[in-house]
Each structure stands twice: as structure tokens, then as C-alpha cells.
């Protein structure tokens, strides 16, 4: 063991997301100052992604879905940088800082919680014109764009421009994509009361999905319920349809439709962090067969990374980037990539590292699904609650309240929980804000304009 931290075992955690944050705080609770902990992440905060659809809908202030790592993880070293190489054979990781500096960090225990990235397809114009919905700035940008477009469309005399400005296209109807479009449509419906020049029929929300259904995690009946609800609200849901092209904002779909859009949001799936499947960057074993597990780190049920030659006793992985056997669902099943599992795997992982430090046997990860819930806009929701072997179908206001309640409970830190609730309470009094500030993406524009003596370049 390479003890470079005052004789204490050094736990190096890659990624400060759901897995990373949970593991670090649980380890601190169980082992106190007995271990040195380092967390590496290019962002100095953890993003609570389940709240992003509500950020995109202006229901939650963006900062309130972020947990600042340095504040939450006191006594833990936080390195702001990206993992560039994992060399488990040498017990080291190379981290690249924003300045391009390379830091080599050694460890006694390694935790890989590098999450996932959007899975893109080679569709013309997609990379140039679309935006993802995994990061807080993306959700903010979607919200700002939609609200700014309402203001522009209400002013323009050009019917073609107006149509493009008011057409919002979302690709992917899984939980994240389905919630994002539903919440955004709800926000627009709310904002329209302040736009006498715009009518609901001017707005076009399009949701495209290649599957024959949306919200795959729901039961067939619930999927039908959601589909009806979205269609009744005027969201055009195109099923078994693919995006063929998005060049210059001109959308072409496989059903022969063609239309211009000013906003294209890509939510059609995720893949494990690509640094893990890059042979030159990482020597950890990943699943190579095509399918939903491809690129994920192979782990045993106790979350140790498993190689051809047996498990690595000092390397653990969990969350979206790991193929974790789902013992509660049966043999051959793997945990789906969600926060419910990521947080609980983080807890199990921290306990297993503590056990390893203390020479006790490790315990397998076992978690029975608690259910799934989605919000579809204010007071609208759907979900399945698992109570033992019983499954309860919840819809409408109760489902919406349960989803919100669960996420407040799961949101890290008391301060953020309180801020989210306070924001919701304020919205009840003064309604959601209707200001979009897309100018935030080019903050120097006004200054440059002044520098050019008021002349537009
Ligand atoms: C819009 C949206 C809505 C969702 N809604 C739900 C929901 O309602 N319920 C639910 O259970 N799940 C939901 N999820 C899924 C859930 O957020 C993820 O499954 C969960 O966050 C995975 O945890 P993780 O720790 O594996 O990854 P993450 O929480 O994504 O953390 C990965 C971390 O790794 C960091 N990282 C990336 N690259 C590097 C690098 N090279 N070096 C160092 N660090 C790096 C990232 O910055 C990030 O902080 C949603 C996701 C999205 C995007």
C-alpha cells in the first residue's frame, strides 16, 4: 500500500456526482479521520439531475439543485479537474486541470463514479444545433431560450420567423426527456397569460421517439395515460419516428415531416463516461458487447471491479458508469442508471471500503426498487410506488406531490432542501418567473457594443 497521506489509507473518488458525494460523506461518517479522501471532478459541485426538468421550467432556481463539494465535504480534498488516465496496475490516476496541468495522484482505494454522457447518433446537423439536458447550464439555456423566444415571437411581424421561434423540438421520451418537454410546455402555458399577442395554438412542442412508447419505466396503462395527457395538452408526440436531419435548424423526421425549429433538445439516451472505454486512458475492464451495458465498468455485486484475473480489491465502481448486478431483480439483471441506485450504491460502496480497511468481509449491493415517479408540470404527475410486493399506481396531484417530496428528501444538504421549498412557496404567491436571459451566454456583448461606440459590428 502506498500511504502518502500521513499513514492513512487514501481513498480517491473519481466524480463528485451522486455516487462520489454519497461515498465521500458516508466514509467520513463511518471512518472519521482514519482515512484521507480526495474527490476529483471538473465541476466544483454535484448536480441533482432529477430536478433539472423543474429548472428548465423555471420552478426551481438553478443554484438550488447544486451541492457545493467543498462546503458539503468538509475535511475532504476536492480537486477540480478531469480524469485523463486511470492506471490501476500502478495505483495512480492522472488528472488534468482546466489550466492543462497534469496531476498524478496515487491511491489505496479507488472509487469510480464518473457517470454518463449523452449518447449521440451521426445525424446531420445534430451536434451543431442540438443541446443536451444533463447539466444545469443546459436546463437554464433551454428555459432562457424558450422564454426569450416567446418575447421575440410576440414582437415579430414575420410569420415564418414567428413559427420557427415558437417550435420547440425534444428528441427522446425516456424519463428525463419526457419530464423535460412536459415541464417546459407547462411553463409556456403559464407564461402565455402575459402574452396577449400569442395563443396556445401558435406554440408547437414536438416530442420524437424511435420506440412505440414513451416513459418505458411505466406500466402499459400508465404510458397510455401519459401519452393521452401530453397529446391533450397539444404536445405532438411522434412515436416510432426518428430524427433524420437537423441541419440549420430544419428538422426532418422519418415520418416525412419537415419543419424549422429554434430549439432542439437531445435526450435520446446516455452512455457511460467515454474515458473508461478508451484503452489508452483506462486499464479498467469494461463491457464490450453491444447493448445497454456497453462501456460500463464490470463489477461484482460487492461493487469491486472484476477483471479476467479476478476482482481488484482496491478498485470499486458504481452508478451510471458501472454494470452493477441487480440482485433484487434476479440473475442476469443489472441496475438501471438512476439516482435511486447511484446513491444507495454509494452507501454500500463506502461501507465496503470501511469493511476492507477494518479487515471485515464485504457485503453485496441489494436494493429493491422503491418505485418511479415523474412530474409532468405543475400538479401533474405519474408513478409506481412499490410497497413490498405490492405495486401502487399513482397519478395526477398525488403523484406530483410524491415526486416532489421524494426529490426534496434526496436533494443533498438541508440548506438546498429549504431553498427549493422556499422557491416553490414564492412561486405560489407570485407565479413562475417569465424572464429568459439568453444574453447570459454572451455576457460581454453589451460591453463590446459600448466599446464600438454603439455601432453594431
Ligand atoms: C434530466 C435528468 C433527470 C433525471 N431524473 C431522475 C429521476 O427522476 N430519478 C432518478 O433516480 N434518476 C434520475 N436521473 C438519473 C440520475 O441523475 C443519474 O442516474 C445519477 O445522477 C447517476 O449518478 P452517478 O454518480 O453515476 O453520475 P453523476 O451524478 O452524473 O456524477 C458523475 C460525476 O462525474 C463527473 N465527471 C464526468 N467526467 C469526469 C472526468 N473526466 N473526471 C472527473 N469527473 C468527471 C461529473 O461532473 C459528475 O459530477 C435523471 C437524469 C437526468 C439527466
CATH architecture name of the largest domain: 3-Layer(bba) Sandwich
Structural class: alpha/beta
Number of domains: 2
Return residue spans where pLDDT drops below 50 for at least 5 consecutive residues: none
Percent helix among the residues?
25-40%
CATH topology of the largest domain: FAD/NAD(P)-binding domain
Bound molecules: flavin-adenine dinucleotide
The CA-CA distance between the termini, in Å, is 61 Å
Strand order of the largest sheet: 5-2-1-9-21-20
For the biggest sheet, the summary is: 6 strands, mixed
* Secondary structure: number of strands: 25
Question: Shape, please?
Answer: globular
Q: Please tally the helical runs, counting DSSP H or I stretches of 4 or more residues.
A: 12
Mean pLDDT across residues: 95
Q: Quote the beta fraction.
A: 15-25%
GO molecular function, one term: NADH dehydrogenase activity
Protein name: NADH dehydrogenase
EC number: 1.6.99.3
Enzyme class: oxidoreductase
Polypeptide structure, described:
There is one protein chain. By secondary structure, the chain is an alpha/beta fold. Helices cover 31% and strands 24% of the residues. The chain has 12 helices and 25 strands. The strands form 8 sheets. The chain has a 6-stranded mixed beta sheet, with helices on one face. A 4-stranded parallel beta sheet has the order 13-12-11-17. Flavin-adenine dinucleotide binds next to helix 1, strand 2, helix 2, strand 6 and helix 7.
